[in-house]
Every structure is written in C-alpha cells, then in structure tokens.
Specification:
Radius of gyration: 23 Å
Oligomer: single chain
CATH class of the largest domain: Alpha Beta
Strand content: 25-35%
Number of domains: 2
CATH architecture of the largest domain: 3-Layer(aba) Sandwich
Number of strands: 17
Largest sheet: 8 strands, mixed
C-alpha cells in the first residue's frame, strides 16, 4: 500500500463520496446499500488492516474490529461513526458528496458532508492502523475499532457493540470518540491553541408541548386558539432559561487555561472558586458555546399545527430539544419545564431522554496517554484541558463498560469549520486531517 499523504487523501475522498446518510429509524425497509458499499470499500482500501484484524458486523451495518495484542485485558477502544446527516445540495458551495479539494498546500480544504463529522476521525483511525500493521507493529494490549452506523439518529449501532463487548467481559481502559478539538479563540483571553477533551457529555431530551382545541374554520377563530396558547408556552420557555452554574470539569478547564490568559481574565480564571458565580452570568452573553457550558439548554426546533391555511388546528405542537448539564436529570428538567409553562392546558410529553454521562477523570494513566499523544502529534504548544462535550455522541453507551470515556477529535478546527457541522459547506483542512492520523498513530503505539 502507498502511504504518502496524497494516497491517504485519495482514500479519504473516496469514502467521503459514499452517501452514508443516516437510515430512518422509523422505516424498517430503509435502503442500506450505501453502508454495505462503505464496508466493501473500506475492506478494499485497507488490506493490511483486514488481513490482521478480526472484523464483525453488528446491528446490520455497524463495524467492530479487534486487533489482538499481547494482552487481552484493559483494551483501547477507538470510536467513530459511519453515518452522516442529510444535506440540502442547493445550500452548498461545492457538491457535498464530491469531496472536492479547494486550495493548495497545507491550507487546502476538503469540502464534503462528513469531512469532520465523523468520517474525518474514522478514516484517520483506519490510516493509522493500516500504516502501523504494514510496519509490523503489534499493540501491547488489544485494540478495538468501533464504528457505529446510526449515531446521528441516536440509533442502536453503538449500543449493540457495547452489548457484544459486555457479554465477552471486556472492560476497556480507555475509550475515545469524537468530541472536542484543538481550537483557538473559543475561550476569551486564552493565547494558546487549546485541546478541549470531553470528560463527560450533556444528556439529551426531546419534549413535546401540545395545545388542543375543537378545530373548525379559520374564519371564526376562538378567543384563545391552540396556536396562541402554544406560542405563549414557547415564549415562556425561551424567556426563562435554565439557571447557570459551574460544573467541576468546566471549573478545571478555566483553571487550566488561566496561566495562558491575557489581561484581567487571567486572575479571574485563576481564582474561579471566587469569581465563578459572576462568570457564569456573563458567559451566556459571549456566545452559544460558552452559554452551553454553564447551563442546561432548551430550544424549540419544530412546530406543527393545522393541515391547511384556512383550518383551525385541533392540536398545535412544539418539539423542544433539551441538553442537560451534569447535575441535572431528565426528571428535574421536565419538572422545571412544567413550572415555567404554568399552564395545565399545555400537555408536556417526554418523548425520549438520556441523563448526562458520568464524568471521566482528568488525571491518571488514561488521561496521560491522551495528553501525550496530543502534544507529540498536534504540537507542544497545544494546551490539553478537560471539557464538557456539548452534543451527544455514541460514547455515552460505553460508560456502562468503562470508567475512562473521552471525546476528542484530533484536528485543529476554526470557528467556521465548527459552525459548518450539520450545516452546509462542511470542510476540513488537509494539513489538519493529516496531523490527526499522527495523533492516532501515537496513541496506538502507547496501547
């Protein structure tokens, strides 16, 4: 196999062109052809890996690989997911499944759905393992590659993989999934690139708010139609957000970056035990990412009403996406939503919910391995720090079998690149992606 950067990039682009859009969980006859094609293409592109690792398909389309080491105990698990979110092609500057390279040199960008979320990590893992196997490297302990197929729809792929491992009595010493990245400018006043490593992730809930009425013709509306009651409920929820607070990993993050912060913020972060109550009130004004670090968030994402423009709605519904900060629970969030609405005529239904994950330690051997790989591959000027993962990932299922579950995407990502996730013009710089391969190689060599 040719292992030049250009050859690695060609393999990356080939896999990005396969439209592995998440399968509809409510459609039992959903077409999984793209996922099967992805499986076959991976097997063709990475022959050394497939000659040395054991592969099994789980839950129809997820992939689990085992790389046997000298010791089967306390293995390393590297995670990623195969599926990507849908696209609206008209919104994209470049074809989302063409994987075009824009620009040249280290700053060239690959534009494609999944470039960062999450085929960037998946293919970087494959490249790292393929090259190490080709070099004759054998890990000290077993390594598992766990690639779920339906992370974007909170599906059962990763859960099924966890059950397979649990049934075999496997308890990983380190699990690494997508999550934080190397960022600059995300934290106010911080002067160095920061590798934010998720030690926990927020829980996620979907809540339906529903108002009902008899319906009828829109020419004779009632005094208080269902749509008006629902609108009031939505505004109440928006105007009374969850309270802010400082959770231990976020406190540790600001204590870590304090020596690398300019101006008065340096002293503020260093003494966050005293200043924390004030900071959490200021952070929501500084941007959505900082807001999400210090409070449970709730936002209405879908609205539905009548079937026609001249028809009164017999029911009007709002879907609320809730992301739970550690310390909150689905039950406590539901109770607060009911209090805020204060309207017994608004039905509150929790459609799905998972509580925040346990918090993994940011000290000890597992953490030290992540930090060492970060510094060696991504730059010794990078500052690793604990972090709360803002979105949900497949890694939350692995907390059932490991106390050391982390969330880190080993790429330097600009604000624009982060904002393009789940949006149009998703992209990654080629140089950043290639350095990510080095991160996985270094982490594997320490397995």
């Amino acid at each position: 196999m040719v292992t030049t950067p250009d050859a690695a990039l060609d393999r990356f682009r080939e896999l990005l062109r396969i439209p592995t859009v998440s399968l509809d969980p409510d459609a039992p006859d959903a077409d999984g052809t793209a996922f099967l094609h992805f499986h076959d293409t991976v097997a063709r592109l990475y022959p050394h890996l497939h000659a040395s690792l054991e592969r099994e398909v789980v839950a129809e389309y997820s992939l689990l690989y085992r790389w046997r080491g000298r010791d089967a105990a306390s293995p390393l698990v590297l995670m990623a997911h195969i599926d990507v979110v849908p696209v609206v092609p008209a919104e994209w500057t470049h074809d989302p499944f063409a994987a075009e390279v824009v620009g040249s040199g280290d700053a060239a960008e690959v534009h494609a759905r999944g470039a960062v979320d999450d085929k960037g990590s998946l293919v970087a893992v494959l490249e790292a393992v393929e090259s190490l196997v080709a070099e004759g490297f054998a890990p000290e302990r077993d390594v598992y590659l766990a690639f779920g197929h339906n992370e974007e729809v909170a599906g059962d792929g990763a859960q099924a993989i966890v059950e397979v491992l649990r049934d075999r009595g496997i308890r990983p010493s380190l699990v690494l999934d997508e999550g934080g990245a190397v960022v600059e400018g995300a934290l106010p006043g911080v002067t160095v690139p920061t590798a934010v490593i998720g030690v926990a992730e927020r829980g996620v809930m979907t809540v339906h708010l529903t108002a009902r009425e008899l319906g009828g013709h829109a020419s004779t509306p009632p005094r208080d139609p269902a749509t008006a009651r629902l609108a009031r409920a939505v505004l109440r929820l928006h105007r009374r957000p969850f309270p802010t607070r400082l959770v231990p990993p976020v406190r540790a993050m600001f204590e870590t970056v304090a020596p690398h912060t300019t101006g008065p913020l340096r002293r503020v972060f260093a003494s966050i035990g005293l200043t924390g109550r004030l900071l959490v009130k200021v952070f929501p004004r500084l941007g959505p990412e900082l807001n999400a670090l210090v409070r449970t968030t709730a936002v209405v994402t879908e609205l539905s009403g009548a079937t026609g423009a001249n028809v009164l709605a017999t029911s009007a519904r709002a879907s609320v996406n809730v992301r739970l900060l550690p310390g909150d629970t689905a039950a406590s969030a539901e109770a607060r939503i009911r209090r805020v609405l204060g309207d017994p005529l608004i039905e509150v239904e929790v459609v799905s919910a998972s509580d925040p994950s346990p918090v993994s330690p940011w000290s000890g051997p597992a953490w030290d391995r992540l930090v060492a790989a970060t510094l060696s591959a991504l730059g010794d000027d990078v500052l690793p720090t604990p972090y709360i993962q803002l979105g949900a990932s497949d890694s939350r299922w692995f907390t059932a079998i490991s106390d050391h579950v982390y969330r880190f995407t080993p790429f330097h990502l600009t604000r624009g690149e982060r904002e393009a996730l789940h949006s149009h013009d998703e992209r990654i710089r080629v140089g950043s992606w290639l350095r990510g391969i080095g991160f996985y190689r270094d982490l594997l060599r320490k397995s």
